[in-house]
């Protein structure tokens, strides 16, 4: 089959010129263009070749699906994902799918058509049934069954760590405060680790949960304050929930950390200027982002992965609330 | 010239099947693929046709250039830009070019090759000399001369408003605290408005500036505290600078707002859980984002725009610091 070089030789021009004619890009003199087009026809230069070239350019794009880029955790994640992609010459397409899960389907279709090289991020759809084993998708935080690789912080160890730190700070009856998603999310292991560690240490504990998403944060927190006035430690499933809880608690005269120790999860505060500075289980966002892209890259290249779920270690970051 | 329909007719298959062969996407039986490839060769089906189709799909993408998506102001901006693009079926490509201005050049090249339909955002390069008048670029905050439309908050009015609010809160000697960029940025009008309003009202004022970027924030703020211990109001050019100043001031025993009233610019706090809640000039981020995309859309469609710079009104948002 004729190659682009054959076309260039026959037309007596450089390969770059042929490429510009094919791609309709850059300046090519009409007379040169004619010559190239003639050579393409004479050699039956096959359009698939062109399509493939285009695809190779197109396939240097990766789609990132997130509930919302406005969320500080997700914008940090997007920052490092773009940085890691850039090292390999990949470009990032961004989709906020929060509240509009159907937006994701477009990107799955693009992936099927090879118009993006891969998809990463937090998805709402049950994509598992629609994709094959080797399709380049890496999920963050949401663990499907077998086909889709998942990268997540070590939520279970994070839960254990939070319980231990609350106890270390003096809490005798700590509570877990969270929500239960209808589909299994790795984030639910935060509660599991918390409960397991409390049981292992013989510490009295409370689990306070409602179905996700929590529609009325205020009612949810006030109900907690009413029902569990005796807890002296709170591990909230996110930093934002921890901050919201503290705001309500303070209005009832509860002092943090004197009366209640509080630990969040995420580590969204990247400067020490706004208070309270939360004690928190810090998500290893940079490592998660870079790992996600490295795994995706392996999938694109057809390199088998060792695991289905990659747990990245977390650390406790001391703030002003324990 | 043969069309994809001619190929389909000759091969006795549907147009979609030809498309799948050309694009190498989806399942096509080997025997069918052979038939299609034969028809393509017989008809000299011209690759340019394919290229054009690809390009038309590609041009539903818009590139967003930002210093860093991690910045809360920029992640809010990206959120609304993606949302507005989605209404017209456009997809967003994201580029963090902070510290790597050369990354932008790739997207300018893509635009020249029609691989993206347009570019919006905050650019570092002096793109003006490289682009023609009608090229679909909309700049945010940075005003080039004539060719490139700019959307920005009304920085000048924001500066005036900040001065008036500081005076209203009791400040007798307010200071502007900022930085001077080497290329003109619309954000520099914040100082101009501040100074103009102080002069109009006959208020004593201070301007404290250093060249941008400020390498050592701490040294910069400490020098301000040493030099200007007598000011009783501060208008900082961003919320982050205001928060950083307050942190340093508090360590010197300066109380906000009792001793010094403070106003920032941006409005990055979107919840009331972290303190101090800044009094600030709120950027109309959503309106700026939607306006940017609507103007870009007009440029893509060849509709002439009325102005070179679009100033979106700002408001003062009262917090705990005035």
Automatic annotation (TrEMBL), chains A, B:
SUPFAM superfamilies: lambda repressor-like DNA-binding domains, Periplasmic binding protein-like I. Pfam families: LacI (PF00356), Peripla_BP_3 (PF13377). Keywords: DNA-binding, Repressor, Transcription, Transcription regulation. One of its GO terms (molecular function) is DNA-binding transcription factor activity. Residues 2-56 form the HTH lacI-type domain. This is LacI family transcriptional regulator.
């Amino acid at each position: 089959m004729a190659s682009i070089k054959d076309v260039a030789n026959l037309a007596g021009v450089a390969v770059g010129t042929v490429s510009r004619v094919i791609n309709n890009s850059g300046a090519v003199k009409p007379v040169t263009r004619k010559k190239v087009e003639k050579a393409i026809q004479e050699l039956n230069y096959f359009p698939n070749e062109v399509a493939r070239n285009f695809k190779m350019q197109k396939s240097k794009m990766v789609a990132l699906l997130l509930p919302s880029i406005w969320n500080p955790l997700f914008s940090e994640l997007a920052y490092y994902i773009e940085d890691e992609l850039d090292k390999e010459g990949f470009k990032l397409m961004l989709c906020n799918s929060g509240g509009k899960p159907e937006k994701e389907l477009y990107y799955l279709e693009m992936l099927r058509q090879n118009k993006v090289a891969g998809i990463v991020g937090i998805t709402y759809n049950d994509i598992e049934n629609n994709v094959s084993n080797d399709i380049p998708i890496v999920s963050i935080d949401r663990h499907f069954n077998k086909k889709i690789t998942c990268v997540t912080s070590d939520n279970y160890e994070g839960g254990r760590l939070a319980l231990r730190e609350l106890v270390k700070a003096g809490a005798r009856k700590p509570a877990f405060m969270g929500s239960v998603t209808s589909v299994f999310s790795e984030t639910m292991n935060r509660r599991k680790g918390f409960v397991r560690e409390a049981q292992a240490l013989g510490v009295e504990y409370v689990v306070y949960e409602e179905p996700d998403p929590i529609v009325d944060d205020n009612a949810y927190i006030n109900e907690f304050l009413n029902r569990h006035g005796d807890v002296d430690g709170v591990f909230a499933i996110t930093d934002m929930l921890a901050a919201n809880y503290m705001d309500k608690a303070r209005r009832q005269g509860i002092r943090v950390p004197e009366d209640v120790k509080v630990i969040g999860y995420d580590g969204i505060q990247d400067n020490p200027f706004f208070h309270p500075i939360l004690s928190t289980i810090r998500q290893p966002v940079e490592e998660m982002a870079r790992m996600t892209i490295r795994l995706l890259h392996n999938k694109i290249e057809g390199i088998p992965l060792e695991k289905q779920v990659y747990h990245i270690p977390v650390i406790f970051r001391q703030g002003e609330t324990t």
